[in-house]
Design a protein that fits this description.
The complex is a heterodimer of chains A (276) and B (308).
Chain A (H helix, E strand, L loop, with lengths): L1 H34 L3 H6 L11 H9 L2 H31 L6 H10 L5 H14 L17 H13 L2 H9 L4 H12 L1 H17 L2 H6 L9 H12 L3 H21 L1 H9 L6
Chain B lengths: L1 H9 L4 H6 L1 H32 E2 L10 E2 L2 H7 L2 H33 L5 H9 L6 H11 L6 H8 L11 H29 L3 H9 L4 H29 L3 H7 L11 H10 L5 H29 L2
Antiparallel strand pairs in B: 1-2
The chains are: A mainly alpha (276), B mainly alpha (308).
Chain lengths: 276, 308
């Protein structure tokens, strides 16, 4: 008797979860499913699945929408931004955890409290700063403002603080400089934290929208995929088959990343990164 | 001065040698980071305050007529800003609680599963990594009049189709659905982390007492999870106050009838539009900053209280 109610309960539990999962997954399914259909098939609802796997939509969107350029820009911005951010973050986290100087922790506390400043408030001035630096309309305008992240430094500093100082002392006695100690001992130890930070930053860079939109208003050649896609929809008109193919192109690299690094991404997010 | 005293009483202090080169080291390790922070965070933060008090400020000529509260007076009396404030608050009040309730149920159920974990996690958490610009197109397609999945279902059931994207009321509805769908993964993950902090002893004790599943949920899980719930509510409210992308991506304008102005949309139009008015944009952004500051303070207090 007890066993049976338990089984019913567990069945209901999985049923609810799978229905929820289906709803969450529906947009992805519908996007990919529709990206293979012809426009006629889409509008007529003759069949649920595409009759044949047409890659025409992808080819057409790819050529019409300047996607090769957007894709290249996205890859460039993401790779360079992540690399620079990691470098800057590693140095800063070390400085704020292992170098001893007066006021260090106070400065860091002030920095952490600045995490609450909404970026939209800074954007006004940054827009002008980028113009003064003669970066407006150049692809570096999408990278330069974002290499110093307080949040990532905070995560990595916490890890560095957990490494006992005795390790540092013995490395110093062995003649290692701070620089060597950081790169040869600390960085390899911090690999899980570094992977998490790199993933969060890659996702943020790849999907960045509003700033890219502002910066590319002067030069369409620096558009990255997300805003490029939005611009494509207004330039190409309403052709849902092409929209879905374009959306799939934008989303697939991140989905692949997610499938391979699901656990690290979830850990990173549970620490408060990436929201909404 | 500090240096000197140390040198004399330090003896063979290993710190002594690198005291001298300390400034160089600080510059090396913290220089790149601080450079970025000063130029792109601290300076613009201060400048936003300054700009908001400059009257008749022209960014091109870099001139202004004087200091004062004119920008604030203008913004706080601007019906578009006020409607933006209203739209934003309504968005927060609807999206945050609904997504929380759904997330609590899903998180509790997910926490008890042993099988299908990879599949379920993939389905629930995928929106974390996918560009909202791309998925907004899928939503536009699903809710479309012609060829839209939802309207196809509605007409098949014999009802008249709904103009989801073209009417004020329904365009709001689509925005909420999109907002909830996007925020669910983050919310579920934080709640799952909170659930894992609950001492399993409570559950064992309840089972011994023969408590029913629903009683366990309402009398044990929810109360013990409440600090996390409060925390997530605040974090989500902060991000919901900054809603802009979703509106822009769904409609390419502030809603079909200019009914979905949000605070950020207002800021964006005041400085990125054709006739930039930086003073107004700055004043509006300061208002946003103070709203967010209140929520952040609440969050700090809660975090201290719960040691989360």
């Amino acid at each position: 008797m007890k066993n049976r109610t338990d089984r019913v309960k567990s069945f209901m539990q999985y049923l609810t979860l799978f229905i929820g999962a289906a709803i969450m997954f529906l947009p992805f399914f519908w996007m990919i499913n529709s990206s293979f259909k012809t426009e006629k098939e889409l509008l007529s609802f003759q069949s649920f699945f595409p009759k044949q796997l047409l890659i025409d939509n992808f080819r057409q969107a790819w050529e019409m929408g300047d996607f090769p350029r957007y894709f290249g820009n996205s890859v460039f911005v993401t790779v360079v931004c992540v690399a620079l951010t990691m470098f800057v973050t590693i140095l800063a986290a070390y400085g704020f955890s292992k170098l001893k100087f007066p006021g260090r922790d106070l400065i860091f506390t002030v920095l952490v409290s600045m995490m609450m400043i909404p970026y939209e408030m800074l954007m006004l001035t940054n827009y002008e700063t980028i113009r003064h630096m003669h970066l407006f309309g150049k692809i570096w305008s999408l990278i330069v403002p974002f290499t110093s992240s307080i949040f990532y430094t905070y995560i990595l500093r916490n890890f560095f603080l957990s490494v006992p100082d005795s390790l540092y002392q013995s490395a110093r006695i062995d003649g290692a400089s701070d620089w060597q100690y950081l790169w040869e001992i600390m960085v390899p130890m911090a690999k899980p934290s570094l992977v998490t930070i790199a993933l969060l930053d890659a996702i943020t860079c790849w999907n960045s929208f509003m700033w890219t939109m502002l910066m590319s208003s002067g030069n369409r050649n620096i558009r990255t995929l997300p805003f490029g896609l939005t611009a494509f929809t207004s330039e190409a008109g309403v052709h849902y088959n092409l929209w879905m193919a374009g959306a799939t192109i934008v989303v697939i690299p991140m989905i692949v990343l997610f499938l391979f690094c699901r656990k690290s991404i979830i850990t990173g997010v549970s620490r408060g990164g990436l929201k909404g | 001065m500090n240096k000197k005293t140390k040198r004399y009483n330090g003896g063979r202090d290993p710190d002594e040698k690198f005291e001298a080169s300390m400034i160089g080291k600080i510059a090396l390790f913290l220089g790149p980071f601080m450079l970025g922070i000063v130029i792109f965070t601290i300076y613009p933060f201060i400048n936003a305050f300054l700009m908001s008090f400059k009257e008749n400020f022209s960014i091109l000529r870099n001139t202004f007529s004087g200091w004062g509260l004119a920008n604030y007076r203008k913004v706080l009396n601007d019906p578009i800003f006020l409607s933006g404030l209203k739209t934003t608050i309504k968005y927060v009040v609807i999206v945050v609680p609904i997504s929380l309730i759904i997330s609590i149920v899903i998180a509790v159920l997910l926490n008890n599963t042993r099988r299908f974990k990879a599949i379920l996690q993939t389905a629930y958490f995928m929106p974390l990594v996918t560009s909202t610009a791309a998925i907004s197109l899928v939503f536009r397609f699903i809710f479309a009049n012609e060829g839209g999945l939802i309207n196809k279902i509605i007409t098949t059931l014999g009802q008249t189709q709904i103009n989801f994207l073209g009417t004020n009321r329904w365009s709001e509805f689509v925005l909420y659905i999109f907002g909830i769908w996007n925020i669910l993964p983050f919310t579920i993950i934080l709640l799952l982390a909170g659930l894992q902090n609950i001492d399993p002893q409570y559950y064992t004790a309840a089972k011994v007492d023969g408590a029913k599943t629903l009683d366990i949920f309402t009398n044990i899980t929810v109360p013990l999870l409440s600090p996390t719930i409060a925390l997530v509510a605040i974090v989500n409210s902060i991000s919901a106050f900054k809603v802009f992308d979703y509106v822009f991506q769904l409609y390419n304008k502030p809603g079909p009838g200019y009914n979905l102005y949000t605070i950020i949309y207002y800021i964006y139009e005041k400085f990125g539009g054709t006739k930039p008015q930086y003073g107004y944009a700055a004043a509006a952004s300061i208002v946003l900053f103070f709203i967010i500051a209140v929520f952040t303070l609440l969050q700090r207090v809660l975090q201290k209280k719960t040691n989360y």
